[in-house]
Amino acid sequence: MRLAVFGLTVSSSWGNGHATLWRALIRALAERGHQVTFFERNVPYYADHRDLVELPWGTLVLYDAWNPRRALQVLAETDAAIVTSYCPDAEAAVAAMEQADALRVFYDLDTPVTLARLDTGERVDYVPAGGLGRFNLVLSYAGGPALAALERRLGARATAALPGFVDADAYRPGRPERWLRCDLSHLGTYAADRLAGLRELFLVPGERRPSLRLLLAGALYPPDVAARPGLRTVPHLSPARHPALYASSRWTINVTRGPMAAMGHCPSGRLFEGAACEAAIVTDVWPGLEEFFTAGEEIVTAAGCDEVLAALDMPPRRRRRIAEAARARVLAGHTARHRAAALERLLSWARANQALTTRDPAGGPTPADGVAAS
Fold first, then answer.
1. Which residue among 11, 215, 253, 319 is least enclosed by CB atoms within 10 Å?
2. Residues 153-194: pLDDT tens digits?
3. What pTM was computed for the model?
4. What is the pLDDT of residue 373?
5. How far apart are CA 330 and CA 107, in angstroms?
C-alpha cells in the first residue's frame, strides 16, 4: 500500500514521543513492501533539535506553510491517509483527504489527553470540526474504554486499538556509561499531570535515602524539579543513547501521565523501550497494565515510595530475571513489526468495509477483537 501520514513530527525526538514511534513503524511498514510519505510542518523548536534529516525508509515532506497542491499530489496516488493527534494542520489535511479516493484514518496517539481536554471544554485543534465521523477508521494508542469514548464523544464509526511498541533494532541491551550510572533513572519529557507520581516514585525515594544516585533525562523540567540535591539532569538524551542509560541504571522509573493512568490500557512507549533494553522497571499502577506485563515477574509496580525502596533492596539476581522476562515479553508481541502487521490488517479491514464506515449514520462496525494486539 501507499500511505500518507500527516503528523506532529518524525524528524525530531525532542520533547515528544511521536517521532521514534513513527520512525520504527515506517521502517517496519517498508519491510512489508509499503510506501510511506510523512508530512511535517517545519517548526523552529523541532528544527533546532532535529536528529533525522532524511527518512531512510520513506519520504519526508517538511513544509513551512500548508501546501494543498503538494498534499493532493501525494493523496492522488495514496491508498490510505492517516492524520494524527497533535498534527498542526489536521483540519486542512482532512479537507485534502476528502478530495481524494484514499481511505481516511485518524490515529490518536494521545487519546486520554484528548478526551481529558474535551472534558474541560477545551477546543482540541487536531480533532476536526464535527468530530471523527469523517474517517473510515479511528485508531487509538489507548484501548479499553477509550474506544467506546471515541465513538460516543466524537462520533468515530469504527475504532481499534494500536497501542505502544518499540523498535527492537534500535532498543536492545546496551553498555553502561560511567557518566550515566545511577540507582534510579527517569526518562521522559516534563508533563505537569505526572508530576505528583514523579515526586512519589522518583524524588521522594531520593530524599528518604540521600545516598541514592538519581538521574532525570528529559526536556522542559522547571527549576524547582530539576534543581534538587543529589539529582542529576540531562535536558535531552538522543534515542541512540537510551540503551546506555537503561544499562547504567539499577532501576528505571516509569510514571504515566495523569489522564492516561486514569483511563488505563495505555502503556507509555518508554515502558517498551526500557523492557527491550532489558532494564529493570518500576512503574505506577493503572488499569490494563496486566495486558502488557505481568507484575512481579516482568515488571515491578509501585503505588508509593516504599515499594520503590523495596525494589532497590531486591537481590541482583532477581532483578536480572525480571528484566530478562520483560525483554522477552516485548519481543514476543510489542515491536514495531507486530504493529505494522496489525495496521496492515486493520487498513485491509477498513477498505473492505469502506462503504459502511463512510455511510452508516449510526456508527459503523468495529474491527474484530484482538486484531490490533495480535
1. 319
2. 999 999 999 999 999 999 999 999 999 999 999 999 999 999
3. 0.92
4. 37
5. 22
Phi, psi of 283 (to 5 degrees): -125, 155
Asked whether the beta carbons of 71 and 39 are under 8 A apart, the reply is yes
**Cell of residue 44, nine digits:** 523552529
Contacts 24+ apart (CB under 8 A), 291-300: 291/143, 291/265, 291/373, 292/163, 292/267, 292/329, 292/334, 293/326, 293/329, 294/325, 294/329, 297/322, 297/325, 298/322, 298/325, 298/326, 298/329, 299/271, 299/275, 299/326, 300/251
Q: Helix 68-75 to helix 90-97 angle, to the nearest 10 degrees?
A: 50
Higher pLDDT, 361 or 146: 146
CB 71 within 8 A of CB 93: yes
How many residues belong to the chain? 374
Tell which wins on pLDDT, 169 or 226. 169
* Residue 64 half-sphere exposure toward CB, CA atoms < 13 A: 0
**Averaged pLDDT score across all residues of the chain:** 94
